[in-house]
Every structure is written in structure tokens, then in C-alpha cells.
Design a protein that fits this description.
Number of helices: 8
Distance between the termini: 23 Å
CATH class of the largest domain: Alpha Beta
CATH superfamily of the largest domain: SPOUT methyltransferase, trefoil knot domain
Number of strands: 11
Strand order of the largest sheet: 8-7-6-10-9-11
CATH topology of the largest domain: Alpha/beta knot
Low-confidence stretches: none
Largest sheet: 6 strands, parallel
Strand content: 25-35%
Amino acid sequence: MNLILFEKKFDLICVEKIDTRARHIRKVLRAKVGALICVGFVNGPRGQAEVMDLAEDGSVTLKLISTQPAPKLLPITLLIGLPRPHTAKRILFEAASLGVACVQFFEAESGEPSYASSRLWQDNAWRERLWLGAEQSFGTHLPEVVMYPDLQTALSELFEIPARVALDNYEASGSLGVSLSKDGQIGPDAKSCALALGAERGWSPNERDCLRQNGWQLAHLGDQVLRVETAVVSAVAIAIDRLGLHSK
């Protein structure tokens, strides 16, 4: 992790031995008393804290030294056919690392219904993946995560987003880069976008019709068939560039 994230802001805190953050400070960072480490607070600022004490019981005492605003989330919404839990974990991590604002999952027609009953979603383990992604990217803001029972329900919540593109290897007539360009009728004037990816088995004919009827463009990422998590990273990177969503 490039930043150690905490739920709430503190002035002085004792991190107990059983906390993975204490072990990280001791064993990975090998911090000594007086060392400065990077910290952040969920959906708040980031900054530096000084190691004030490394107790014999394994705890670590930190004192907040300074803070600064953390990068805001990007105005990008991901809409994804619910994948197997292992893939969902990767997507959540990458989405948080990239800084997207929202990740929405829907139960796809070609998906496996049992995925929605996974321990990942029942025990809030999904939030841990967001947390780790934010720490990796030196950020503090966690994307919103939403679950829908089907595609149409999800699409009905996204009408106000100006740029809406669904990735499809089979019926798309152009690339995502072109779709998000000015010639593709979206261009950099769009202030936000939604990117949809089907389940691991792809879109069903009914889902493609549903996307078109709701005003979504179909676009591809090239000739290769990518894993969902790889497609997420590629699509978000293209959207950031074509829509000028860089923070600098």
C-alpha cells in the first residue's frame, strides 16, 4: 500500500498489534520512532503522521502532522454484469485504484444467479477491496457500489449521464476511443460518462436491444477478447483521456 487508510481523522492514535496497519508499519515500512508515514481518511484528506511510539506489545502510536485534499473521484460510472466473486474482487480493486465514482453490478441474463449470494456481498468483504485499491492509488475516496436485479433496472437510473457506452466485441461498429471523441458525437464536452460491460459470457441479444433502446452506443476495445477486469482498466483509461477528466 502507498498510503495507510483510516476510517476517521485523528490527532493521536494507538494502532493495536492485531491491526494489519500496525504490522505493515513495523514489518513492511520498517518505520522507526520519528519516521513520517503517509496516511489518509476515508472520503477525506490525506497527509503525514509521525511514529511516536513502537510499544513492546506490538502497537504503534501515530500523531497527525499535516493534511491536504485528496484527489476527487472521477465522474465515471461502471455498469457490469455480475461476475464470479474472484473477478468482482479484482474489478472493485481496480475501480477504486482508478478513482471511478460508482460501480454498479446487475444480474445478467447469461450470468450465474448464485454469484449474488457470494460471501463477498453478504459479509461486506467488497468494501475491503475498495479500501485496498484506494490505498494503492494514494487516494482516500471509495466508489459507491450498487447492485441491481437486471439490466433494465440499472439503465433506468443512468438516463442523466450524457455519455453512455456499452462495450461489445461482436456488434459494435467502432472503437470506444472514437465513440468518446468529438466525431463520435460525445467528445470532451461531456462532463461524465457511464461504461457498461456485460457478464463474463457477454451480452444476450435481449440485453443488446435494451441498451440500444435506452440510448447507449456500442463500442469495442479492439480485436482481442479481454478479461472483464482488464477491459475495465482499458475502458476507464480511454475515457479519462478522451473526455479530459485528468485532475492535472
